[in-house]
Amino acid sequence: MLVKDVGICLARRDYSETSQISTIFTRDHGKVRGIAKGSRRPRSKFSQGLELLSRGQLVFSSPRTGSGLITLTEWTLQDSYQQLRRSLQRLYRAYYLAKLVDLFTEELDPHQRLYDLFSQALANLSAYDSWGDLLTFQLNLLREVGLSPQLSGCVRCGVSGSAPLVEPSGHLSFTEGGILCPACAGAITEKSRVMPLGLELLRRITAATGSTESRLADHLEDRPARQAQELLSYWIRAALNREPMTAHLLR
Asked: Residue 148 and residue 230: Cα distance in Å, rounded?
């Protein structure tokens, strides 16, 4: 049976002289891995470009028994996000987000909302090259997969507000689920030191109009943005139990 959907290419590799294997994050069917037979021929049903970070409409068959692979039969390009490819910084940030989507999702597990957020994040990065969009999507992704950090107050004693938590001895702990105040952090071994400006920025993004969907200003100050990214990088590394291969691109 053939199925039609829209999707964004997360990864691809050559399979033979004429074909390739692509990982595509689809809106209605989740992440799929499939063989695009003949996609490397000059004239094929994939000639519009099944490239990394391209968005399009695809037609595919059900997975073959035992292989887990689908067969891609058609690809109609809808957006190649050309602006991303004119700036290494924008492209690297987009590569990083694509890798996170790949790592945090399972095959054939639909996440329609996450697909929409990812598509919008790529469009925003194409237009603005913004720290805000990079940070916002990571918080959105963590929320959608149920791994959001608690940032509003200490997860152990409930101390709220920013003052007690931005001292040098404050920490973020993945195993505990969020922020630890200085008094509670001493008993926890798995933790990362809180950087005050970064924490405040993550709180601002999370609190914006009650969600992480609204865009912040296109240009955030570099120091708090980098601190916020360091905190998110720690959290993501702990959640995956490894560092994403594309993490170095953000440095």
From this structure: 15
Give dist(CA 105, CA 169) in Å, integer. 34
d(CA 34, CA 22): 6
**Distances, alpha carbon 229 to alpha carbons 47, 113, 224, in Å:** 37, 23, 9
pLDDT tens sequence across 132-188 = 899 999 999 999 999 999 998 899 998 765 444 444 458 999 999 999 998 899 889
For the chain, how far is it from start to end, CA to CA, in angstroms? Answer: 45
Return the C-alpha torsion angle 50, 51, 54, 59, nearest 10. 20
Helix (H) or strand (E) holding 198: helix 196-207
Q: What is the CATH number of domain 2-128?
A: 2.40.50.140
State pTM to two decimals.
0.89
| CA 3 – CA 32 distance, rounded (Å) | 12
Domain extents in the chain:
2-128, 131-250
CA distances from 199 to 19, 85, 178, 190 (A): 46, 31, 11, 18
Joined together, the tokens standing for residue 137 give: 């999507």
CB of 107 within 8 A of CB of 68? yes
Two tokens, residue 237: 């590394």
Backbone phi and psi for residue 10, each to the nearest 5 degrees, phi listed first: -95, -30
Place of tokens 């790529």: 122
Three-state SS at 34? strand
CA dist 21 and 216 (Å) reads: 37
